[in-house]
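call fold(seq) -> tokens
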Amino acid sequence: MNIRKSASLLTEAEQAAFVAAVLELKSQPSLLHPADQTRHRYDDFVEVHLNAMAVMEASPPGQSWGHMASAFGPWHRVLLHHFEAELQQVNPGVTLPYWNWTVDHDSTSPIWNPKFLGGNGQQDGLVPDGSFSKAHGAWPLVVLDDPASDVSFLMRFMGKAPDARSLPTTNMVTSALGNTPYDSAPWEDMMRDPNDPTQWTGFRIRLEIVLHNLVHRWVGGTMLAMSSPNDPVFWLHHANIDRLWSDWIRQHQDQSPYLPLTEGPQGHNLYDPMIFHADGAPPPWEGDSRPVDVLDHHSLGYSYDTDPADEVKLPMGPIPAQEELPAIAAREPAMAAAARRALPRFVLPREIAGLRNGQALG
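ret:
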């Protein structure tokens, strides 16, 4: 069983091994674009994430693959699992560390050292040090939101955004973990009434909007893009999000570990194959994954250093068999694409009246 450790607890040798494996993926040929020598295997993962977010920013907004909707937890778990597996093809001893922002909560944290992730950006955002800096020369950003205008080097503006001066606190995490159920109808955040607090309930909304989005905004720069995996801290951030989802499942064994069962959009129901590429486009890896397949992180071959020492299977609430579920009803007219409301990228609670005025956020 691989153990994902807190990034602040990695030894210098473990930090170096992680960086070397990531750099190696940045040099291997792309599987999605094998004829394009400017693209590499690491860039394939960036492209998957960019495409998943880009459908929401189309006009009119399209259905989310793995953001602002129920599959946020399992979709990113699968993305991280495949990324970690490819790192381990380079070095079997490498696992994804997680960034516990309640511990490493500012730009002076040791995780930002030049031998690991590199530091904060300068006044113009340019990260000046580390293996992923422009100066090092091994980390050109190839997959960009807008290739015509976006810079091709790593940028960070830690804590500079007026609405993201600080990272999530322990109280915010505790408050999020206390929310039930996992998610609530209408299952897509762009379908919710922004002024109705009753439509903004559940853990997934707190995990994504209250915690996850704030971290993207706090780091700033490259992490504000749809192509945010261009910043390697993306993987550490999402490993922590993944850890917290498992913590919630363990804490709420009286709840279903995942919702919806059948009423959600395509790719978001318990037994739906999740979406990682557009119709007709090549898949980024072999095989399909459904939320039901990845509810227990131990089943994917890893644990966290904060898991109970004797835990080999994540305890969770009941999971109905597929044949026990009701037939999937036709989508309600209100769920038509035209009804989706565009939301700011990495939206924060203060930008949604119903969430801002609803339950306490910690």
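Residues 278 and 309 are 41 Å apart (CA to CA).
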